[in-house]
């Protein structure tokens, strides 16, 4: 066998590799800045805790670390080409652990110190970041921060503070056990190796795995071949067969249903991360139980995609109606259909929910409101009770008055569906939507047989065009009859309309003329039928101001210079708070609940390892809550928002707190 001469790859224990006497690492100048946020730190710490709790022999793989020895490094130093973010974060975690146990476990503190500092020079860390921020990093790891650094803002400070808040002295042995189970592939390049080419090969080739592919791998990883085969054949293959090309949507919708939370957008790996968070450990026993549930829901998903498979004719018809609006409400439909199939709800309850979904989406579209970010809050309400779901529908479904006013002037969305349900036509197979006043009338078109279109004034023509796609100007007409009215004036159309088997269309033949007055009158008539079919399920007032429940609020993507206001205001249990951003809200909610519901704050903070502490144990931004309690304010916005959501949910107040995005904040959340 011929050995490679320029690349040496070895599977190693990460901690043993870092603490080896010969390991000293320098980050080259061309590397990007350290960017891991608290969300990534939380995931890393969760992985370490998870592997620490497994039986002896289990490890957690950190992928590869790529380094070389070259002219840029001092003698004996490794130049870190790939792995800076992971190694830097590990060093911050180990530093936090070491500082936590120095007084209580000197032996462990000594072991951790060997990982952090160079054996030849204890005043320097083993990892030396880019010189522009090396001093900041070392001041954190070696606790050299001065009072002047109290207000310093850096990822090193923030992430270190997060780890300090999360790790208690009594948990230190567990964290240390997890750290020693980390492994990676150490790739060392020789002097003649092309570092850039190898870096690109490791990071840029091949198609990235999609969320459902990552979920598939996550399920099967660590199982024996026989166990993998069983899960694959008994569960995964049926799920693929049931969902087909929509398997990625299935997992998204299933997780929204299960968690009651909207997931991250298409970018990134939001669905996979949500799956891992929901199912952190999948041993063979629990995997079979969960996989059976996933398969059951995939069978329901197949029915949603193809309603003809539903065993009940009315349910099939209602599912088809819901599909008119796309798949955005599938998470709620999954739950409702599951309850019906398994006897937890009757057919009338299922049909009622499907009707409420249609009313909600259609009324909001007519009223000019968005339909995004609604389904998670409805899933949360349904998990509480059917009555709470009805109230949730009522709160976000526009009133009759609002819809009645809008229908006078707006283009009817999903016109075929709307007219079909109003007329009771049954099937649209041989029917089309007829515009009584045509969208593009010829000069000779006439509404009364006396005046031609060319003789209408500009104002008259504009008013007709404005109403061309409103409800009153639309009718269903059989295809053979539709061919006979193309480009015809209204008096000529009347004779054709009279032959239609659709009653509301046939009645158009009784009118002498067609114009804006006739359109308005017919709109008023059909609007009453519209409001009767698509009912509002409750008397609860609508969120007219387009408020977003706090649990559905999203971290901002970042603001352009000069635009720092994320929210116009926050509605807190009926109170109107002028709150510009998540940092202000974080402070105000924790202070308010410290006064109103202290036990919830204490329980939440103890379980999470913060953000409330007995002492200001490290430098940073703090705020006193009173009675020897302090709120740490140095988190990033993602952590703060998650903490606010978690505390409000635990205290039972989340359903009473809403945010109103500012104009620019609304754009930045997407």
Write a structural description.
- There is one protein chain.
- This protein has 670 residues and is of the alpha+beta class.
- It folds into 4 domains: 7-203, no CATH class; 211-402, no CATH class; 407-533, no CATH class; 548-668, no CATH class.
- It contains 29 helices and 15 strands.
- The strands form 4 sheets. Strands 1-6-3-4-2-5 form a 6-stranded mixed sheet. Strands 9-15-10-11 form a 4-stranded antiparallel sheet. A 3-stranded antiparallel sheet has the order 12-14-13.
- A hairpin with a 2-residue loop joins β13 (622-626) and β14.
- α3 crosses α6 (155-166) and α11 crosses α15 (330-341).
- The longest helix has 22 residues, at 284-305.
- It is elongated.
- The two termini are 54 Å apart.
